[in-house]
Specification:
heterotrimer, A mainly alpha (312), B alpha/beta (256), C mainly alpha (423), B: 256 residues, alpha/beta, four-stranded antiparallel beta sheet, C: 423 residues, mainly alpha, 4 strands, binds adenosine-5'-triphosphate, binds magnesium ion
Chain lengths: 312, 256, 423
Amino acid sequence: MEFVVISLLNGITYGLLLFMLSSGLTLIFSMMGILNFAHASFYMLGAYFAYQISTWVGFWPGLLVAPLMVGVVGALIERYGLRRAHRFGHVAELLFTFGLAFLVEEIVHLIWGNVAVDYRIPAELDGTLFTLFDTDFPIYKGFMMLISVGMLVALYALLTRTRIGLIIQAALTKPDMVEALGHNVPRIFMLVFGGGTALAGLAGVIGGNAFITEPGMAAAVGSIVFVVVVVGGLGSLGGAFVASLLIGCIQTFSVGLTISVTDVFALIGIVLPEGSQVARLTITQLAPVLPYMLMVAILIFRPRGLMGARES
Amino acid sequence: MTAPAIRMQGLKKNFGVSEIIRGVDLDIHRGERHAIIGPNGAGKSTLFHLISARLPVTSGIIELKGENVIGLKPFEINRKGLSRSFQITNIFHNLSVFENLRCAVLWSLGYRYSFWHRLAGLKDARLRADAVMEDIGLTSRRDTPAGILSYAEQRALEIGITIASGADVILLDEPTAGMSRSETDDAVALIRRVTEGKTLVMVEHDMGVVFGLADRVSVLVYGQIIATDAPAAIRCNAAVQEAYLGTGTHAGHGHE
Amino acid sequence: MSFVFSRGRLLLWGACLALAVALPLVLKSGFMLSLLCQIGIMVVFALSYNMLLGQTGLLSFGHAVYYGMGAFITMHTLNMIGKDGSPLVVALLPLVGGLAGLLAGVVLGWVTTKKAGTTFAMISLGIGELVAACALMFPGFFGGEGGISGNRVVGKGSLLGFTWGPQVEMYGLIVAWAFVATIAMFALTQTPLGRMANAVRDNPERAEFVGYDTQRVRYLMLILSGFFAGIAGGLTALNYEIVTAETLNAHTSGVVLLMTFVGGIGFFYGPIIGAILVSVMQIVIGGMTHAWLLYFGLFFLFMVLMAPGGIASVIAMQRNLWQAGLFGRMVPHYLAATVPILVLMAGLVGLIEMSYALLAGEGVGAGDTATRVMGMQLQLASMEPWAIALATTAAGVLLTRWIGGRTGVAWNSALSTLHGDKS
Ligand SMILES: Nc1ncnc2c1ncn2[C@@H]1O[C@H](COP(=O)(O)OP(=O)(O)OP(=O)(O)O)[C@@H](O)[C@H]1O
Ligand SMILES: [Mg+2]
């Protein structure tokens, strides 16, 4: 019971963080048709910027400034790189973002070195929020949830309640029409790209110290985020939300489960032959591959994803 | 009597809540040339998309030569001998004219997914592609990438790809759209020649082409067939005139 | 006509083979020999990758899986035959690798090729990660962190005097396999399946309407490409006598994508250029500076934005100009354009190298004393070298805009003359 509740809380925290990434990715994808391969690189940049700022002036200014910086970097990249690559078609675009991810990782290596930096949770948030059964739930996790939920509410309000949000929604489906109505679609694209990357940056700011800030973090999170959008259905915000929480929970639950594959099959009445390597693996050991297995299963049984509208 | 080339019954198609095809019943006889006319947005192209499985049917029956084809994939229907062209040119842009045509004949000549035949050694495919190229008048553009052909040339190639496989049921969606008078005349002669002994269904706005080519004409208005008859009879059908006058279109009724 | 053509082609193949065989006579050092071996392997790998990207339009982020499977199975087979094997069997082992790659393609491709386009790219990435994660989960088969190793010199005598022990003999084996595989892959482009793969790349919808199941075409192409990737993997296993999980991870997939693209995906020989270039860069520039991956990333982005057709397309373009007699008039512009590019590069390289030197030395309190950067003693704590590098970069940017703009104009006018001539 204790395990379930704690894992659930952790899973939701992680899932919300994933959604901050996958929502930006989804918005950019459905609007511009670009799968931003470098999305997680902006997550990483967010973490490193925040770390750098925290060494100078502390955590709180970084919480605001770092995502903004990441957003500006994103917008500039859209304006001066992506827009040009766009002219050469989808493959060139995808390759551009791929090269970008590669480059960002190298730059991070160059500036901050090969090992993890000491990006810490601020002292004010370092403590226990409440104790459930015997396990402490840290304040910082609660803070992460607060920020993510706040961000989501703001995003939702922005998309549904403001003029620019409505234009964005319209441009999602009919960019030509929106352009014909006199809106500057390239500028909207730049804004969306900047906004999406800023969101990723924010996720990096609050995720970098909760987990780890190192040059490999982009690659590690990046592939999970792709799994999220495939599972949720490419281009579906609702799908991304469900899939983020689902995968967040799967990952936290599986990390805590020490029962083996044999035990799992025993639960449903199947006895596996002794001694095979697969049967002896514990769920914890399987944790890294579970999201991908889920993705494969989804592709086979529901190719358009959980909530995807179209089969692409 | 043999089954009709194409039989549609109670055919419906919705896009979301809007009904675009609202119950079409139509038999296309074997060997006839059948034109489908109707105002813009009537659903003519959509009807073609349903027959060729580019779009899934909402409800109803489609039979090709007596065989149910609902639920089949486009390539399966093609293999049953139905070939179609597109209103918006749909060709292999980076391949040369010759390669476009050769790709169109490979399956029907039985080469399937072969990776053990050398293309250059396939005399039948080459001859067939060359013959079609001659037919559509693109021999001089043999090695030009299809993407840089002129509009009229691309339209000709579009027809060429459709007829190359030698399918016996052919669907042409506005084959002469955007062509000049003389190009249209050439296209009509070409279509007449290559569909000899085959079943042809075509969507066409040019009444000259329709009346010159079709054995029968169906009028599709707002997702329903309001009349099917010989061209002469269609010309003086009151309901048709009503429909055309009512929507005030370009179909140029009355003359030719 | 076609006879003459194929004779020309035969000559070309022959010349390439002769060159490959002759090279180690000139480049005798062990370093050069291992570079040549690496190139031979990468040529096969990159060509197999281009069967997907260039020919079928499938952008894969997980191609290393097939390469890696080929390598691991080859290594296990090698260890299994061990002392009882003959050099002939060893020489044929890459075929085992190929079959392993093919089998992996049959299994994994069935999932990935259900989709095309962006979705395919993402799925291939996911499958790649899945396999890479599995590799760490089953140390029994994949050897964990250390990988598995073997010995390509097996017990029984020799094959026509070859034991494959010396590196130069291994090079011969690689050349033989690379040559056969390259010819096979080229031949594949000239078959119905190869051509329909192009058609599916250009317009999958229309391909369905001329009778082809596009999913099946993609699947078959992926299986065949897995086969050739597996051969490359088998060669790697024999060449290095060790295979680690790195062989099938995302990094290796990324490298093959980069080299194929840089070489040019629109031409059969493009990936060959890419494999040679990137291998050489990796070893030569990689030996000179730690920042080589950064340079490579910049170079790649530059190619994506400036020459998305890769080096092969640049070459092809020059050939067209040459044939139209327009090349001569571009030469002065090319020469003029090299100046700003060199200036820009000098500035950038200076900045990057100094940053590297500074950041690397930070811990040991360097910066006050002179640091060696690119063979120069620089006082990194002072403003001077930085100012010079910055100024050079800025000058490079300005010059590039100015002269580059004029080159662009000349280029466009040459191109329009070229196309004007044609039509
Ligand atoms: N994918 C779609 N989603 C929603 N509505 C569609 C879709 N495709 C077509 N329609 C609508 O269906 C109607 C019929 O379209 P269709 O293309 O079949 O007309 P048509 O008779 O071929 O017209 P035209 O003569 O202009 O070619 C139009 O109102 C069109 O807007
Ligand atoms: Mg139409």
